[in-house]
Write the structure tokens for this entry.
Amino acid sequence: MKLIEEIEAYQPFNEQEVRDKEQILNCLRTMPDLFTRENTLVHMTASGWVVNPTRDKVLMAYHNVYRSWSWLGGHADGEKDLLQVAMREVREESGVKHVKPVIEGIYSLESLPVYGHVKRGNYVSTHIHLNLTYLLEAEEDDQLTIKPDENSGVAWFTLEDALKASSEPWMSEWIYRKLNEKLKMR
């Protein structure tokens, strides 16, 4: 599988990525239906760390389930090209029309817990998102729109303000800070 090869070639940035890479590869090799929601324990997802052309701002949405400003992304829903999933989700969740990859490959990877919640009137049990993050670029002057069934705000933040805007301490410290650190190294 091409995706397994891409993940195998990915060079982890820190210990979190080393461990999560192992877990993602193990699940891809041993578990069925990771690309659909039929597997109720583990789902493949993709996120975009969407930056402006000057790389000093990031686009975030106020996520209704998490009650926090967060990156954009979502479930593979059968699609195995996760870069395309990330770009689709960015367009759907923010309204931006012009989004493109800064780099073609995986920017980051994460294994993320998703706690039980109600979505569209149905209870969704606690599960794990095996997530690939892609570094994407969008224009700040693209019109932003919310996706009411998923978010209630979309806005650009400076890199530091993005960390403060998130009300999820673990995501802010372990994931968003890492993404910003990697961005500053580019």
Remarks:
- The chain has five helices and ten strands.
- The mean pLDDT is 95.
- The longest strand covers residues 127-138.
- The chain has one domain: 2-185.
